[in-house]
Amino acid sequence: MTRNAELLFNPFEPGFAEDPYPAYRKLRQAEPVHESPIGVWLISGYADVMAVLRSQLSVDPRNIQDGPFSVRLIEGRALSMLDRDPPDHTRLRSLVAKVFTRRSIAALEPLVTGLVDDALNRIAVDGRADLVDALAFPLPFEVISRMLGMPRTDTAYIRDLSGKIVHTLDVVADEQEFREIERATAELDAIVADAIAWKRTHPTSDLLTALVEAEDQGDRLSDDELIAQVELLFVAGHETTVNLISGGVEALLRHPAQLALLRDTPDLAPNALEELLRFVNPVQQSRRITIKPWPVRDGRVIPPGTFVIAMLAAANHDESFWGPTAEQLDITRPNARQHLAFGGGPHHCLGAALARLEGRIAVTRLVQRFPGLAFDPAQEVTWNGRISLHGPARLPIVV
């Protein structure tokens, strides 16, 4: 099969970092199942993305065959559940899932509410803030740190390491950037290894202790696997929710009628959160790898060993599913919960309930607390420049 010579999707075009949705629309309309000249297949329509997520395609990057596009692996990577297929994925996920039950997450509501209110109190004193630094980052970081039982450390340092590591979810072509990611990964490995060593002799009732004990009880978690699961939970436990909170508030500020509706109708909060997930897409894409010829629409077949990108954000704005208002924010949307922001199938986001809890409480209490909430006219919103984990890097507000 000859690859399409046209580059229909280029995330490095000017303006993409600020607003990727015109690029997604162009791709959906031109070719929703697209064989890119860089060697990947891009799936952007809702039905097709859903089919990818529910399929038995691999997530293990070691299954990618040599070709015009390949993934560089950092030494020792592909050990977390994010990169493993059954039966390893099933085994690893089952260990963590015991802690991420609806009941256990619901029990965190007083903690989350208290942390949000503390942050809002500080914002009220100053009258203005960068919402990312003041609320969107510290809230999920503190919650996942407490759940894991991670020792107190330099938050800014960990944030910097985490920010580098998540670039592995994007295309890394620059050699210097790749080396920085390798160094950040090694440093975070050492921090997590030290925490695990401490927990072996000082067990408590936290997730990290539970994972350590599961390994000790013969659940066949190697030391490297244990480090990989903890890092995944630690990094994914805050990086994605940062984008949900900051991106959600940014979207509401751009749609003042929707912001007023949420403020005046608190009962809409759960559905509003689902619509924000659909609209802002904290995780923009999910990857799979074919392990055998995989048929797609119009009789086309994706060959084995091929990188497939399920474009969650594009699917969540697909007019063929969401109708003519697909690219509008509507917190009353009746089917908002059918979004694909948390992926789907066997790799559906394990932390979905936690993200929903943190996002709902943070956004709604911010809106209720500050009727005068607005963009800071003296400063501009800046974006993080990431392809996969898209969101504001700075969100200056006044209250």
TrEMBL record:
<dbReference type="InterPro" id="IPR001128">
    <property type="entry name" value="Cyt_P450"/>
</dbReference>
<keyword id="KW-0479">Metal-binding</keyword>
<keyword id="KW-0408">Iron</keyword>
<dbReference type="InterPro" id="IPR036396">
    <property type="entry name" value="Cyt_P450_sf"/>
</dbReference>
<dbReference type="Pfam" id="PF00067">
    <property type="entry name" value="p450"/>
</dbReference>
<dbReference type="InterPro" id="IPR017972">
    <property type="entry name" value="Cyt_P450_CS"/>
</dbReference>
<comment type="similarity">
    <text>Belongs to the cytochrome P450 family.</text>
</comment>
<protein>
    <submittedName>
        <fullName>Cytochrome P450</fullName>
    </submittedName>
</protein>
<keyword id="KW-0503">Monooxygenase</keyword>
<keyword id="KW-0349">Heme</keyword>
<keyword id="KW-0560">Oxidoreductase</keyword>
<dbReference type="InterPro" id="IPR002397">
    <property type="entry name" value="Cyt_P450_B"/>
</dbReference>
